[in-house]
Structure formats: C-alpha cells, structure tokens
Amino acid sequence: MSILISAKKYDKTLLSIVMILLIIGTVMIFSSSTNISMDKYGNGTYYFRRHLIRLGLGLTGMVAAMMIDYRILKKIAAPFMIVTIILLVLTKAVYLVEGNHSPARWLYYGSFALQTSDLARFASIIYLATYIDRKRDRIKDFTYGFLPPVVITGLIMALVVIQPDFSTAAVIGLITIVMLFMGGAKISHLIATASVSVAVMIPVLMAAHYRIERIKAYFDASSNFLGTNYQVQQSLVSLGNGGVTGVGLGESLGKNLFLPAPHTDFILSIMGEEFGFIGIFLILTLFLAIFQRTIKISKECTDVFGIMLGMALSIQLIIYAFINAAVVTGVVPTTGLPIPFISFGGTNLMVNLICIGIILNISMAKRTVKHRKGARILFG
Amino acid sequence: MTKSFTKFRPRILFISSIVILLWSGLTMRFFYIQVIRSADLREMGLKQGQNKVILPSVRGSIKDRNFKSFAENVIHYSFGINPNLVENEQIILDAIVKITGKSREYYHSKFSSTRSFEFLERNLKNSISNSLLAIKDNGFVINKHGYRIYPQERVGSQIIGFTDVDNNGLSGIELELDKHLKGRDGWIILQTDGRGRSRQNSGNPRQSPVDGSTVILTIDIEYQSILRDEISNRVEKTGAIGGMGIIIEPFSGKILAMTSSPDFDPNNRHLYKTVAYRNRVITDQFEPGSTFKIVPAVAALTLNCVSLNEEFNCGFGQYNFRGHVFNDWKEFGLLTFPQIIENSSNVGIIKIAEAVGANKLHQFVRKFGFGSLTGIQISGESKGVSKSVSEWSAITLAEISLGHEVSVTTLQLAYAYGAIANGGFLMKPLLVEEIIHPSGRNIYKCSPQIVRQIAPKKVMDEMSKMLVRVVNTGTGTWAKIKGWNVAGKTGTAQKFIDGEYSKTLFIASFAGFFPAHNPQLVGVIILEEPKIGYHWGSIGAAPVFKNVMKRIIQMDDGILVYKPKLGKEKIADDLHPSTFVALNEIDLEEKTPVLMTSVYVDNSISSENSVVVPNVRGMSMRKAIMVIRNAGLRPKISGSGAVRYQNPGPGTVTDLYSFCILELK
C-alpha cells in the first residue's frame, strides 16, 4: 500500500516520457535487428529477446531506485568511486592477462557482462554531486575546491580511455565541466581545465588508427555532401529515403542491406527512414522534455545534492542523445555512442533506467519534504 | 522555487539555453536531410542499389544422422579486384594467366579500370584455383559459390527435394529449410562520384556473404537405401503401380527412412515425371484396411468392454450387420479377442467395435492421430479423412473397424503403430535432427515431443502381445525374422474407385515393429495395386518388412543389443516353420467346424520357467495349437481332426517351451 501511496508523488510526466521512449525503442529494435540477427544467429528475434530481458532488468532497477531514498547515494559516493576504480583496473587487467583482441570494455561474470565505462560515468556523477554539495562554498578555491574533483575524474577518464573507450571518457569529461560550472566554479578555472584536457586528448585521439580514419573521413566530406564515411553515407541515404513521413514500419532498405549496426549506434537512421522527419522530431523533443521536467523537479528540490544529481543525470542523457543524432546526420565523426532507451545495449539501458529512477525519487522527495511519511512507512 | 535552487538558477538557465540551441540545430539538420535533400538522397540510394555486385553465399549441405551427405555443392570461385587497392599486380597477373592461358593484356586492362571493382575471372573450378586462393592482397576479392549436387541420387530424393538453377529450394527439405540453407548473399558496392570516377576509399564498402547452415536429418542413409531398394524390388516383382515405406524410432519419433516408389534422381530431375517428386508417404492418403484394426482393439482394451478370454462367434465367415453382410477371408468359428487380431477376422473385429460404440471408436480414431496433421517438418502433408459420427451411415462403424471409410497416410499409420510400440504415446514426427550455423552454433536441435497419450502402457503391452502372435502364428508370418520377436499387422484393402470397392485392385500393407519386448524400429510397408496373388498384405507387403529389417540387423550391429536373450526360444523358432506349414495345409484342406467348447487359459500362472498345461481335449487342431502356444508350450501334432489325447495332461506343471504332444482324430 505504502508503495502505491508514494507512487502518486512521483513525477508522472517524466515517467510517461521515458515509457514512450522505451516503447519506441523496443519496436525499433525488433524492426531493425531481425535481418542482422537472422544473419548472425539464424534466428530473427535473437537481439529482440535479449533486449526484452535487459529491459526487464532495467525496469526493475528503475523501480528499485525510485524506492530507495537518493540521499543514501551521498553516503556511498566515496566507496562506490573506489569500487568503480577497482573494477576499471580489473577490466583492463583481465583483458591483458587473457589477451583477447576485442576492446576491454566488458567485465564478465559467468554469462553476465558489465560495461564498466557505463558504471564509471554513473559513479563520477554521484561523486561530483556529493562533492559540490559538501564543498559548495569553497568551490571557487582552485587548490582545495576545484582541483580535487578534476584530478579524480581525470583518473577515471584515463582508465576508461585505455580500455579503449574514448567516447565515454569524453562524455565523462564534458559532464564534469558542466557540473562544476553549475556548482559555481570559476569560469577561468573551467576554461583552463578544458584547454588542458583538449591538449592532452588530441595525441590520445591520434594514437588509435580507427579514430584517425573516422576523423579523416569526416573532414574528407568537404567536397561531397555524402562524405566518404560509408556508415554515415548509408545513414544519410536512409534518412533521406524516409522523407517527412517515412516509409513505414519494417520497410527500411538500409537495415536490409547497407547499414552496419542498424540496431545499435545507427538505430536512429532506421527510425528516420521508417517514420520520417516526424518520428525523429518526436524523439528529439522527448529528450528535450526529459531535460525540462528535470529542471522543474530541481526547482522544487531543497537539497543541493538532489539538484546537482538530477541535473547531471538528465544532462548526460541529453549529451548521449544529441551526440548520437549528430553522428547519424554526419555533423560529428562516428563515436560509437548509443542513443539512450532506443539503441540495443545492455548495461547502457540499465544504467539509464536507474538514472531515471533516481530522478523520479528526487521528484518524490520534494513533494514529501514537509513530513517524509511515505518514505518512513517504506523504510521505517 | 526553493532557496537552494535560486543559487544555481543563472547557470542552469545558461545550460538550458545551450541545450535548446543544440536541439534546434539538430532538428534543422534533420529537416535539411529528410525534407530538403530527401529526393537527392533517395536517388543516390537507388543508384547505389544498382551498382551492387552480389557475392553469392554457399548453400548449406544436407546430411543424414551420421553426417553422410545428401546434398552438397561443387565449389567454384570467382576472382575480382578493386584496382585502387591492389598492392601486387604482378603476382595476381602471373597466377591467373597461368591458370586460364589468356593474354596478360586482357587482364592488365582491368587493373587500370576506374571502377572500384572488376571481375577477373568467374566460375573457376576448385581444383585449378589453388594458386589464386593463396594470394593475400587487400584489393583482391575471392568469391566462392556452389552448384548443387545430390551424391545419393535416388536415395532419399523425395525427402531432400531440389533447388532451381539459382539455388532456391523448390521442394522437400530444400524448400522447407530454404531460409537456413540459403545463407545470405554478400555484396560489393561499385562506387563512383558525380563525374563517374571511382573514389579512393578508406572503408571498403563490402559485405561478406554468410554461408548457409548445415541441416542434419534424422534419416539414416543406410536404412534409407535398404528400404528404397526393397520397396522398388517388390514393386517390380508384384507388378504394383507404386509402393511406400517408412521406418521410425518409436520412442523418439524420429524418421529413419521414408521412401515411395517410383522415385527420381534430383541431379537429372527433368528426366522423371513430376509424380515421382512427391513424397507420397506424407501426401497420399488411402483406406488402410486391416492394419487399422488396432484402433477398435486398443479402444476395447482401454475401455475394458471386452475381456481377453471372451469368445466371439465369428459366424463362420459371415455377419449380417444392420442389413449388410460382411465376409471373412476364412470361416472362423469361436475366436477370442487375441485370436481375432491374430487371424484378422473381420466379423470378430466388427463385434468388438460394436462393444466399443460409435462415439468411443471415433474418439480413438482421432486419438491415434488419424484425420489430423502429424506436424511433420515438411509441407504437403495430408491429414486423411475421418468422418465425424454425425456423418456416419448405418454400417460405418463396421467399415471403420475394418479400415474402410477412413483414409490415412503411411506416416500416420507408422506413428499409430509407434504408439503401440512405445507404450501409448503418439509422437510428433521428427525429420530434422539439427541445424548448424557456419559459425558452429546450433540453431536447432530436435527433441522428442509427445502429442498425447492414447492409452495406458498396460493396454499397449497387451496389444503388442497380440501383434506378436499375428507374426508368429497368424496372418503376418511372412514378416517373421528368425531369432527376433516381431509384432505387426497385415492389411489388404480393396481400392475405392468410382464409388465402389474394386474387386481386383488392392492396397497391400504391413505395419509392425521389433524387437517386440523393447521396440527399436517401427516400419510400415504399402504396395499399391499389386497383381492378384500378391495383393494380400501377408504375401505382398509383409516380406518387404522382413527383408528390410533383416538387412538392417545385418548392417547395424547396434540393433543386436536389443535381441531377446532367450536361448530356448531359438529352438522354438526352428520348430515354427514346420508347425506352421502343417497348420496351413490342414486349414486349406478341411473346414472343420470349431467345437463350441472353450478352455480357460491363464497365462499368468506361468512363472518364469514353468507353465501349467491347458486342457485342449476336444478342440479343433487350429484352436488347440493356439491355446498350447499361448500357454508357452510347443505343440507336436499327429493326425487330424479334433484333439483326442494330450501329453502332458491338463493341469500338469511343466517347463516353458517344452513339447506337448497332441493326437487328433
């Protein structure tokens, strides 16, 4: 009973937006993965079934996050960070010992695979929100306020970069800058840090062959609208083929023949082909709506930690969504970042749903701020 | 707005405006691509489709359960180049010139092509391509493709089916599992820019083909060849217009062999009539005749409406059932239930069917799977005909109990007998053992599936005992295999042509399984319109079953494990032919009326090695032999007529399989 009572106090609009995105994502994964799944596994529903399992796990995680008071995260921020660092080191170590040839992005435990970089961005956000909450008056001080979080997230980024997962590291960097900016850090400090980061990242970026290729392909596009990156070309052709209203569910040509990874990074292209500009506009607007709802929730939050956490979690979702949209339209080089709630991808979907669960918990907290009766019944 | 938020408000507002800005930018970008440039891009997409070179995948092979090949591919290679990426032109030139003998200039022109892909040579045989296959070069494209061949030729051809020239499955497994066998073709895009020149490209737009999966069938090529061989020989010998046969495993429901005659060679299928393509075991339905008597029998046993010792007056071969006279093939007098089955008495089984009743009988017909699809993994299956009780005429009950007014497929018949063999379970037919993806992963693995339980094990065990008698001493003796216990039932059905039953055209059938105590194989043999003389299920079809199973026993040592370990029985078997011959002669010579006395024979008294001798005094020879045999003794006969003397006498306890001397007068 108490769960139902308190469920009324969650932000239902936000919950509905996410549910719509999940439904769209599920339909799109089914539509886009049948062919590739048939190819690889001789079974058209392989990816779809795996998606449903992960969706189930993710929703369970979300409900759990909704029910657990988010303030607990403040207490576990530090240990969580340490565990994350250990896991990151372990991922790389297991990879080095076993000598696999694929990137060391996953840590396996039995049949369960954990993408540790996803964990890292989550841990960083909680840590930074806690840090800003505690040190909010000294944040303008460079040595004692500003530098420590920069060093810690820098370490995390370094561990993620060596996996190698450059894109996630860049997202963590971006979120760090945005959070410190929100938290009141001096603009001069931020600009200096950003400059140094970029200076460090360029050689890292150039170290890997495939990244140079992607970037070269991007700049090579100047002479031709389509550019020379094959994936992006196909993505643009798919999007163009969709037009305003799209070719209809399941009718995409791109997923049949031309577009690699149609169910992960380039699912938005298939979406654009099947549902046209209208479909894409809906998706982009839903992500904007998530952001708008979070601002509304933050406005009524009394707790600095809650404001920072909620904002950061929704901003990182927006970053993922917008970067992915920029990639499929050829605005930025190919990154390998999925679009939240829609792309196929296990850990990512689960972490994103837990993020939403936390934001929803924050939304409940402000409504029960006078007497947290609901929570007490739940956990008392 | 809370106090805490106010402090952060300016900076959060700043971030919001950036987010909204980015959102507008992206929306505009999508609008530009999807609305303004839509027509251009769509055209580019179409062009791209036209410039695609298909790299065909190699079709998967079809193998039997021991991985022997039913369908294979002769591999040919095509070689092509991407002139922009070729690293070592000389090596490739040397190799190809050596193989084809064409001039260097011919190939050289291709290397200076502006296109991003050129075929050098297509369809080179596997055997001569080795030197080219060894070349490693980024711009050198090797493509493998296959032409279908069927190494087993006629064996299993109707199951396997065939493909068209483009390697699309047209019938049989080739059609049914086409999507798995086919794999997926790859492609190469011929890229040119607006001015028609090829572009140096970092990401080679190419998708490798994915080869088809390998299909493993439950069929055993050895079994299949034996069955095909025996059936086509028999069809020839008996002058039949066609024959069908199937062998299944009763416990798993796997089909081990399935053939119909005439058949065809898929390598040269245009030489044969299309009728021969048909897998008639599953597509053709016919009236089964006496093999169908198991249905009323199992119904009666299950419902307990007839006792095993109850005697039926078989009216000396005639029975007027609701105004219609049914005849027996012989003038039987009193017969017990097992004897009715053993001698395939029409009158007897009609009486048993009457005891079961119309509704229950129909229920059992359906329970056995007649009148519905078995769900075998290839299409084209007939479900047969089983009229509902409301459509029955006055004599339908009798007709059905004799296997008329119903139509079945050979497949259905096999699974019905399979259910008796496995203790009552109607199994789903399995034809595909597994499907293996080229990556080595198992896409499909079959597992036995029970459709339903028809009757309890006890009933089916009783039924098998009766079917063993059919083969040992009844109508099925032609199917007897020395040293083995075979259970089975013969069938001789008149063909139903133009609204009446033909007097000259028959369908002879035999359905059986062995070893009876632990059945490993179930077989059904059907001969269509054999010459008169061979038209009996017993003389026409039963020997095929025997020959097939004998050859399987000789070929497959695995079966020997199931041979009954009864040393004594071997002697008994040696004796059987003589007694049987004697029995036949006597039956043919004299039509002795069966005396209206009966003896209660309790088989259950017999402990493992000793039996109680029954009283057979006064009985006809035929009946006495049956009673003595049922008791587990061997009759030794002298004279003819009714039994006058027996030794050992009634009630004596004696050894199992010992002799009992009968004097007749």
User: Fraction of residues of chain B in helices?
Assistant: 25-40%
**What assembly state would you assign to the polypeptide chains in this entry?**
heterodimer
The percent of residues in helical segments of chain A reads: over 70%
Average pLDDT for all residues of chain A: 82
Low-confidence runs of chain B? 192-204, 567-607
Alpha-carbon distance between the two ends of chain B: 121 Å
The counted number of beta strands of chain A is 2
Major beta sheet summary of chain A? 2 strands, antiparallel
Overall 3D shape of chain B: elongated
Radius of gyration of chain A: 21 Å
Number of helices of chain A: 15
Task: Provide the residue-averaged pLDDT of chain B.
Answer: 82
Q: What fraction of the residues of chain B are assigned to beta strands by DSSP?
A: 15-25%
Strand content of chain A: under 5%
Question: What gross morphology of chain A would you assign?
Answer: globular
The parts of chain A where pLDDT drops under 50 for at least 5 residues are 1-5, 221-225, 368-380
Main β-sheet description of chain B: 7 strands, mixed
Rg of chain B is 35 Å
- Count, helices of chain B: 20
Number of strands of chain B: 29
Please provide a written account of the structure.
- The complex is a heterodimer of chains A (380) and B (665).
- Chain A has 380 residues and is an all-alpha fold.
- Helices cover 73% and strands 2% of the residues of chain A.
- Chain A has a two-stranded antiparallel sheet.
- In chain A, a hairpin with a 2-residue loop joins strand 1 and strand 2 (112-115).
- The two termini of chain A are 14 Å apart.
- Chain B is of the alpha+beta class and 665 residues long.
- Chain B is built from 20 helices and 29 strands.
- In chain B, the strands form nine sheets. In chain B, strands 2, 3, 4, 5, 8, 19 and 20 form a seven-stranded mixed β-sheet that branches. A five-stranded antiparallel β-sheet of chain B has the order 10-9-24-23-22, with helices on both faces. Chain B has a three-stranded antiparallel β-sheet with strand order 1-6-7.
- In chain B, helix 12 crosses helix 17 (457-472).
- Mean pLDDT of chain B is 82; it is low at 192-204 and 567-607.
- At the A-B interface, helix 2, helix 7, helix 9, helix 10 and helix 12 of A face helix 1 and helix 2 of B.
